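Table S2 (continued). Query chain:
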Amino acid sequence: MPSLRRRGRRTGGVTAAAAAAEAELEELAGAASAAAATEEEAALPAPAAAPDPAAAAFFDVDGTLMRGASIFYFARGLSARGYFSTRDVLSFISKQARFRLSGKEAGPAELAEMREAALAFVAGRDVATIVALGEEIWVETMAEKVYAATARRAQEHLAAGQRVWLVTATPVELARVIGRELGLTGALGTVAEVTDGTYTGRLVGVPLHGPAKAEAVRALAAAEGLDLARCAAYSDSANDIPMLSAVGHPCPDPDLKAHAREQGWEVLDLRTGRRAVKIAIPAAAGTGALAGAAIAGVVLRRRHHDRSRLRAALDALTAVLPSPARS
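Corresponding output:
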C-alpha cells in the first residue's frame, strides 16, 4: 500500500498517494464483503424458480429499501439494552451525520473518523450476540420501515430466477439479518475483523461506502459468474453512482434524476408513501443538515442521558438523514 506520508500530486485536496491508498482499501473492503456474501449463499437452499445465474439485482438499504438509516435503528436498540450510553450513541451520530449530510466524498481524515466511530459499536463484542440482537431489533423496529414496493421489486427478481443482494455500509452481520428476513440471496456489507468469534476492533479495508460498494459488486460478479451488463442496481444516493454505473440496468431513485438524465438512465420511484412521511422535512439538504445538527446539539447541550430523550433524538435524526448521501 502506498505510504500516506509520501508527497504526491494533489487532487481535490488529497494527495495522489493518499487517494491510491484509499482505493486499495476500498478494493480490499469490496473483496472481503463479496467473500462473506459468497460464503453465506453457499448455505442457502436452491431457488424454486428456474435459475438465471448470469443476472442479479443489487439494492441499497437506507432510503432505498427502508425509511431511515439501519445503523441508527440498531444503535437505538443496543442503547435500550444498556450496551452504550446516550453520550456514546450521540457521539457516533454526530460523526456519521457530518459525513452523510456533506454531499461529498470524504478525505482520509474524515474516513478515519468514520471508521473509528463504526468500530466503537463492535470492538470486543461477541459476533453471535450481535447477530442475535440484530434479529431482535429487526422485529422491533426495522421491519415496519421497509418500503413495500421495493421489497416487491426484489421478489420479482427472485421470481425470475435471479439472485438478489443488499449492498450497504451497515455491518455485514446486520445486513445479512435484513436480507435473510426478506428472503433475499444475501448481503454485501462492511466487514469487521473477527478472531475466535469476537470483533477485534479493526475493519477489513474501509466501510462499504461509495466506490467500495462498486468494488464489492464487481468482486461478487467475478466470484459468482454474473454478467454485470445483465444486472440491475437500485439506489437513491449520489454516493452509489459508482455502483449504479457498474451494472447494465441502473435504477436510480428520483433523488438522482439530474444525473440519471445526463446518463440516459430510467428513473424509478419505489418508495411509495415516502412523501407523506417526509412532508415536513425541507427539501434542501443543507436545511436537513441544520435540522439534524440542531436536534443533536440540543440534546448534547442539555446533557440528558435518559433513554426516552435519546429515542426522540434518534427518531428525528433518522427522518432527516436519508438524503442525500446514505449508506
